[in-house]
Amino acid sequence: MTGTVLDTTGLNCPLPFLKLRKALRSLDVGARIEVLSTDPLAPADFRELCAALGHEIVTARKEGSITRTLIEVKGARPQ
Q1: In which domain, by residue range, is 9 found?
Q2: 75 part of a folded domain
Q3: 78 domain residue, yes or no
Q4: Which one of 13, 15, 18, 53 is the catalytic residue?
Q5: 13 belongs to the catalytic site
Q6: What are the pLDDT digits (tens) for 12-65?
Q7: pLDDT value at position 2?
Q8: Strands 4-7 and 56-63: what pairing?
Q9: Shortest CA distance to 60 belongs to which of 44, 77, 49?
């Protein structure tokens, strides 16, 4: 079950990355967020952000023009 959905469809780099980074700040460890994106570069940006912050990408799947990325918060909140 996804706790939060962040819709970044129609937004181009760097907006999906920035919106996800901001959303992650408000989530507790163990929370999940699903990010919807249409920017082809966003999934790679999300992977880099999660690796840097210690979060886990649970799934990432393409559905038509939308990529759904499910992330579980693992590390402490970034400041």
Answers
A1: 4-34+41-67
A2: no
A3: no
A4: 13
A5: yes
A6: 999 999 999 999 999 999 999 999 999 999 999 999 999 999 999 999 999 999
A7: 53
A8: unpaired
A9: 44
